[in-house]
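Ticket opened by: R.M.
Priority: normal
Category: complex prediction / small molecule

The reporter submitted a protein together with fe (ii) ion and asked that the result be attached to this ticket for the collaborator who will pick it up next week. Submitted input follows.
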Amino acid sequence: MEQGQGLNLEQALDLAARTLSAARYRHTLGVAALAEDVARKHGLNLEKARLAALVHDLAKEIPIEYQLRLAKRWQILQYPEDEQAPAVLHGPLAAYWLKKYYGLQDEEVLAAVAHHTLGYPGMSPLEMLIYSADLVEPNRNFPNVDSLRQALYDNIEQGTLACVEHTLNYLKQGKRMIHPITRLTHEDLQRRFKFGAK
Ligand SMILES: [Fe+2]
Ligand SMILES: [Fe+2]
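Result attached by the on-call engineer:
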């Protein structure tokens, strides 16, 4: 990691170990291992992948009412849906917190943390990597998790599109709200894949 990033890998690991429950820490290590491996396959920056993965869920276990209060205070709320489903706030909250209190300056890492739950239109490879690794890390267990993971190794953009579609189906089946950011992410990836495919 370059100097001046504010948080090195060792500190990030230590922060995750101290902040998270055992189960969430295990998930975090799973995301880090997969993100690093997929990053290696696609020639992405391994340290950024590992750093973003280690810190992505740091705000997840803050009580939800407090997350909402912090999001209001830090002006993180963007959509009415953010308040209706505040579980989506922990990504942007962690990114804000890491920048403000830990001096983490790498905007690509911060964006990957901020956008890991809902995705974001125009995601960078690192953002796609963390979004998808969060869903298909080795501790996850649902019917087509292996094929989604393989899709990510084959092509990060197409794999992420498959992960977004999996999530949309899951939300639709459960008749749960679909956040406008996730819809926009889906449209963006569909468009990119359609026009980027050879
Ligand atoms: Fe998360
Ligand atoms: Fe996560």
